Amino acid sequence: MRNAVLGFAMGALVLAATPSVLRAQGTATSAKPGAAKTDIPDLSGYWNIKGGTPSWDPADLQGKNPENMPMTTWAREKLKAARPPFGANATFDSVNDPVQKYCDPPGITRLYQYPYEFMFIQTPDTVYMLYEFTRVWRAIPLNKEHPKDPDSTWMGDSVGKYENGALVIDTVGFNDKTWLDQTGHPHSDALHLVERLRRVNAQTLEVEITVDDPKAYTKTFSAKRTFTHSDSPPTEAICSLSEMQAFQDQVMTPTVAAPKK
């Protein structure tokens, strides 16, 4: 019931807020080289990932060498135990991917790597990000501070600001139950994530993330993704545990089972 109420509320927000948002942002401009710091980028539309890159390692976006990330001992053991569906260690056998196995939320960084759309609702005080996959959403208040002691949650506590024609989102307060990417790289509850979203042109959105997690990684690193504008509205993409289990039983398990003699 609570999810249904939240879904109805978000739908009502979209319908009610969009006209006033468009009026409020009538002078907003897409980010251009040399744009004034006060420019608000127009992030409207549906955005879809461009190309498949399952890792956030800037030196190994294809996930061919996941062990080369600058990990702590704790993170290296977590990666070793991961049985992901993508990257060099991809497997259908005994998968322990929390999304595939339990339909847990993917988390912010991993949501960017699914081939599903997302969209923005920009209001003067808050930016909302709505994701097609699992139908989750984020509320990002602008020009606010984090609470002094945020709860640990799946999506963390996000605050945002506009800077040099980009939307900059600062997030803390994560739990450690999600993977950083599709190859099984972990993160801890100390993760501090900064996202910088810039509309390069009418058809292209650039997302740069900076990961600072001293419990999991020995140094801070950044990586980028490019998204393309889509004319197709999002469809239903709900993670269903019963459908996941059916896929496991009918497709994955027969694929990895030894043939009968």
What's this entry about, in short?
With 261 residues, the chain is an alpha+beta fold.
Query: pLDDT below 50 for ≥5 consecutive residues: which ranges?
Result: 1-37
**Range of helix content:** 10-25%
Largest sheet: 9 strands, antiparallel
Mean pLDDT: 85
What is the CATH homology-level superfamily?
A: Calycin beta-barrel core domain
Instruction: Supply the number of structural domains.
Output: 1
By DSSP, the count of extended strands is: 9
CATH class: Mainly Beta
- Please write the string of helix (H) and strand (E) elements: HEHHHEEEEEEEEH
Cα-based radius of gyration, to the nearest Å? 19 Å
CATH topology label: Lipocalin
Describe it for me?
There is one protein chain. This protein is of the alpha+beta class and 261 residues long. The chain has a single domain (29-256), classed as Calycin beta-barrel core domain (Lipocalin, Beta Barrel). The protein contains 5 helices and 9 strands, in the order αβαααββββββββα. It has helices spanning 2-24, 73-81, 98-102, 108-111, 241-256, and strands at 46-49, 118-122, 126-131, 137-141, 157-163, 166-172, 192-201, 204-212, 221-230. The protein has a 9-stranded antiparallel sheet with strand order 4-3-2-1-9-8-7-6-5, covered by helices on one side. The radius of gyration is 19 Å and the shape is globular.
